[in-house]
Amino acid sequence: MSEPDVHRAISLKPTPWNPRSPSPRPATASHEATHHHHHPSTQTHTSIGKNDGTSTAVDTSLPSDSVARNVPARASESDVESQSLPQYTPENDPYRLATSLKPSSEMAKIRANTSRKRDGFGPLTLNKKAGQARKLEKFYEEQNENIERLLKPVDDHRRDAKEEAGANHLKFKIAVMGSFAANIILAVLQLYAAASSQSLSLFTTMADSLFDPLSNLALIMSHRAVQRVDSRKFPSGKARIETAGNIFFCFLMICVSAIIIVESIRNFATHKGGDTNDFYLPSVLAVCVAFFTKFCLFLYCWALRNKYSQVRILWEDHRNDLFINGFGVLTSVGGSKLKWWIDPMGAMILSVLIIFLWSRTSISEFKLLIGITADTPTLQLITYISMTHSPHIRQIDTVRAYHSGPRLIVEVDIVMDPDDTLRNTHDVAEELQIKLESLPDVERAYVHVDYETDHAPEHFLKKEL
């Protein structure tokens, strides 16, 4: 199953006052000792705290009364943290996934073989065996991360999501807050540069720079609208208002770029001036300041791009802005120093590029709104949690997870003993529902109980009207 390409969606980007995590971060080596509590003769129980969990748009904390009935409470998260971390055992690892973990000693041997097979070209190598060894090392690294992520308890997933969202990370806060503050200042500078120089290329860069703080403002307003939702009018909440607003912004950016293209064509057809345009040094300096600021933010986010998924999105934005601002100032200066037609030509090229970039973003937003499936690691995690939730669950019939705006809807069909009591069946299903809803980014979980798997699917993708 290929992972859906929704990393360009604005709905999954962080905001200064509501940082969000698009997807659970893979476990690192520090979590090798963590485990998934599961005993073959007892049922796994999870007590959900009032402030647990985060989401991509609003705080999805479960209410204090959202606890499975007739289920004993478990030790608090702080108590679990204070205990020594046990090792993997047949009880907490019933499928013995830990046996497939590649030890660090073997990984070191593969890494050493890779370095010995290099042919003297530094990071570039023409040795096929060295490339194969590096691919093998990368495969085992990803396998270890996937196994550790599956064996990690749900509480750890919630805690890691909170940490990744910037609860205790100063560097992350600096990246998000610094980018937001810089975008506001640079938008003003770009507006001044475009208005004073009347350069079409700078108008294009100004239109792109204005969108960054406006999108943050839209996310903040959407967050407030979601918090004030009337459950009688909107039973499923207002989380998708954020995605709908982002689609509107994408459409607005495409329209502005199209207008600049039309204006550039008109400039080509009606130009009556000299061979060059007027040169405005303050406008060029303003754009150069914007370029230098974006370059500093690009370097800062580059150092953190592999640690936080949100910072990686910001890094990609700064990278695109560097190209747009750099190309815009070059064509603007070229129009005033070389030939006048360089400026409108540059504006047209930049506008076409912006239309292409925001079209891809709008497609990602449409996928979230329509209900694209979750990525493969998320589906694997949901399946494993359902499989190891309780010994009373005999089989897993169906697992679905799809977007409803920026967050996920989860559907799980489990198979239980037909002779089991209604109370026990209800408690197992309800506790699994609460556990799945406590995962980061999961808005709602539905657990359906059946007693066999030979029947036709209950829900069809196509329905006759």
From TrEMBL:
Transmembrane region positions?
A: 174-194, 243-262, 282-303, 340-358
Question: Molecular function (GO) terms listed?
Answer: monoatomic cation transmembrane transporter activity
Stretches assigned to the Cation efflux protein transmembrane domain: 179-369
The places in or outside the cell where this protein is found are: Membrane
Do you know which Gene3D superfamilies this protein is assigned to? Cation efflux protein transmembrane domain, Cation efflux protein, cytoplasmic domain
Q: Name all Cation efflux protein cytoplasmic domain ranges.
A: 382-450
Signal peptide range: none
Tell me the membrane topology, using the record's own terms. Answer: Multi-pass membrane protein
Write out the entry's keywords from A to Z: Membrane, Transmembrane, Transmembrane helix, Transport
GO biological processes = inorganic ion homeostasis; intracellular monoatomic cation homeostasis
The reply on keyword Ribosomal protein is: no
Indicate, by first and last residue, each region the UniProt record lists as having compositional bias (Pro residues): 16-25
Which GO cellular component terms, listed alphabetically, does the Swiss-Prot or TrEMBL entry include?
Answer: membrane
Domain of life of the source: Eukaryota
Biased composition (Polar residues) is annotated at 48-64, 81-90
Provide the residue span(s) of the region labelled Disordered.
1-98
Output this protein's name.
Answer: Cation diffusion facilitator 1
Native source organism of the sequence: Periconia macrospinosa
